[in-house]
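Section 4.2 – Deliverable D4.2 (structural model, holo form)

The reporting period included a commitment to supply a predicted holo structure for the target in complex with flavin mononucleotide. Inputs used:
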Amino acid sequence: MSAPEQRRLIFQHIDEPGYTNDIACYLRNGGYEVLKKSIGRKPEDLIAEVKKSGVRGRGGAGFPCGVKWGLVDRKSGKPIYLIVNADESEPGTFKDRYIMHQDPHQLIEGIMISCFANNVKQAYIYIRGEFPHGARILETAIAEAREQNFVGPDVLGSGYSCEIYVHRGAGAYICGEETGLIESLEGKRAYPRIKPPYFPAVLGLYQCPTIVNNVETLCHVKHIVDMGGDAYTKIGTPNNTGTRIFCVSGHVQRPGYYEFETGKITMGQLLNEVCGGPLPGRKFKAVIPGGSSAKILKFGERFKGKTRAGEEYDWGVEDVPMDFDSLGMIGTMGGSGGVIVMDDSVNMVEALANINAFYAHESCGQCTPCREGSLWMKKITSRMVHGEARVEDGALLKSVADQIPGRTICAFGEACSWPTQSFLAKFGDEFTQYPAAPKSLRPNGATELI
Amino acid sequence: MNLKPDTLKRIDEVIPHYPSKRSATLPLLHLIQEDAGYISPEAIEWIAAKLELEPINVYELVTFYPMFRQQPIGRRHIKVCRTLSCALMGGYKTCATFEKEFNTRAGPGEISPDGEVTVEFVECLASCGTAPVVMIDDELHEKVDAAKAKQLSDQIKAEAGQKKGASRP
Ligand SMILES: NC(=O)C1=CN([C@@H]2O[C@H](COP(=O)(O)OP(=O)(O)OC[C@H]3O[C@@H](n4cnc5c(N)ncnc54)[C@H](O)[C@@H]3O)[C@@H](O)[C@H]2O)C=CC1
Ligand SMILES: Cc1cc2nc3c(=O)[nH]c(=O)nc-3n(C[C@H](O)[C@H](O)[C@H](O)COP(=O)(O)O)c2cc1C
Ligand code: SF4
Ligand code: FES
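Output (structure tokens):
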């Protein structure tokens, strides 16, 4: 079966010749019409549309956006905040970058509709520090929208007021975790908070109810309200509605971003047809399907089981539909949509050493298993790469990784242990051989990490 | 503190964006680092006084967030992405090229002998599809293989030479 056509909903105008990121261009393309219509509707109706749509969070956890909005504490009497998670920090993920740089008003319209629906008077866009241009573009776009009365006091003469501010991070990955983000926005170190019982929806920024949504999620809201929740469910597949943007990087002919109806394309179609297959003379070896923390898949392995609907499946990596549920069923996740491809030139020990160095650098250090464990995993894989592996290292690595998940404050604990656990489970032979023959295991003759 | 009038203006604009002054710490650190090049002990005291905090509240952010530095760096800041997708496409060779061209080592505290650059090996810059990527000051450069790294280095050197020539009496 050949790959379906792209369905560009969020990326409709990305890379379109002549499309610019100023408000005049956005308005020429029908911009802010959905906001104008929304302001005349009841906020509850807007929330109901988002609930009906079933849209799941595009930040990675896939939690239904409408359900989250339904859990916001509206009786506390405190203000409700909305925070746009524009930290885009998961390695392999680069979709929000293009939305903010090329189509910032789509995001601002989505934010304003979401704020109006939830009676939010103040929204913050938390953007990673490494996007200085992105921050300036958003600030300019907000000023333009303010001038046209789409943002600020008395929006479009409705009596409703809402401000949006841009807040820049400063290079720490953990600021993408929503409670770490909230601490950071309060002017503190980004130490994640313990949840449950209190999710930001109840106690968030300044201990007020807070909605945290990913950039892409909020763009979907605009389209949901535009077409109606029911119509939106017709895009994609049941429980995996709408479109999904895949960010493909690594060893393929055409890396980049591609938007498809969720669940309508398989991994094989994406990599072989859309991305042009492996580099000349190479073969695919492994793929990480949802950002570097997602468990790795090995080409050649098979997955058997029953879907929720009771249908039997027997898939190779190429056959897996790219949606939240299917990737979850085979023991990994769709996560943030970052698909990282590795071919047969890659030494898996070096690849894991690279990932482990990332997590050791980024642990916030609050929880002992994460702080110490991520460092130990890095130390072990790093000495393997440098030809100093010890005989017991494979087992030690596994034991360290197994002791982290479930014992930490935030999901970083899982994020840092899943790569090691899955690399060992699937490419264990490369790790056990390592002490004996480190040099010969470097197919591309590299002398450093990869 | 000797801050530019524009920095002071922007500082006063940003504080009211938040119901709590403390939230303005990160923005103030960014503004002062952009103005002064790095965060000095004096800057920490100044921000604390401005936001009615203790200096430790500011200092602990400077030590937590990788983008803040407590000493000056080279005139140009070259950040090479170290993370997986870039590494797969040759990011380590890119970094090594900059190190060789400027006779320096990658590290936040290192400055090339001519004072021209600080090369840093940083984590994912969220442009993995155009790996390997490099940021030079605020500018992103895509698909920077070793050859392109050499080109960029030559360009930086040429610009430095021009500046020197221009400042000569
Ligand atoms: N986009 C990126 O750059 C990155 C994404 N991730 C993704 O983040 C995911 C983990 O994120 P978490 O926020 O820890 O997941 P989570 O499952 O704890 O929460 C997801 C969202 O649902 C909300 N939520 C869940 N249960 C709730 C309840 N009972 N009441 C109110 N709200 C509720 C949370 O507040 C949050 O906004 C990973 O699966 C990973 O894919 C991780 C790293 C970077
Ligand atoms: C370690 C860690 C890092 C995260 N980084 C990001 C991020 O950069 N961007 C993002 O949108 N969500 C990130 N998340 C997920 C957020 O915590 C949260 O689930 C998300 O912002 C909710 O928005 P959504 O429901 O619209 O997806 C991260 C989670 C963890 C555990
Ligand atoms: S799991 Fe890691 S990153 Fe998360 S709070 Fe604990 S130490 Fe910090
Ligand atoms: S890995 Fe280099 S930009 Fe993401």
